[in-house]
Amino acid sequence: MTDRVIAIDYHKCTGCRMCEVACSTTNSGETNPEKSRIRIVKIEREAEAYAIPVVCMKCVKPGCKAVCPMGALSDDLVTGARKVDEGKCIGCSACVYACPFGAIAVDRSVGRSFTCSQCDGEPACVTFCPREAIQYLDEGEVSMRLRRSGLDRFVAFIEPCRSNRNRRGRSGPTGEAFQGSILSFTSATLNIRSEPKQEGLQTS
What we know:
By secondary structure, the protein is an alpha+beta fold. The protein has helices at 18-28, 63-67, 94-98, 124-128, 139-168, 173-188, and strands at 4-9, 39-45, 48-54, 73-75, 82-84, 104-107, 112-115, 134-138, 199-203.
């Protein structure tokens, strides 16, 4: 089984919804964002708005599988993507309520749930994203990019304090401020995924 995931760079996403069009057309045969396996969620905060593509996160302990009364959810042996056994699924929506990301839904027209299948290893959303905000990467590469992104933020955060400390010496208020800044940054990194700089989600 390959360890590849769909990675999102939220800063590149413009909310054009081309991924929804490509996904629904590829997987359901019709251009209908309501049937897309990837969905754009727009969040407004004060004067800023964010467009966030939401897709299956491939949880290690998936609640959707745990609550399915029919055992209709499993992992693809080749891609590792979650898949729905259409012969077993009864469209009860238990998986929908169990998913903390809203990445699975029920198609009421056919009475079955659906979620991202990674298009059998060639995700349409990745192919048609005009900004390359969606990429299909090895899981290890995603982890490395997140690590580098975190270190970039760390360096940018402490560099002004380091400069002041070098000019004024290591003792006194400036040194204390420098240590306090590191503690503040460490606390902030606990919520590092809240405002990702590069690939923000490890998914599908």
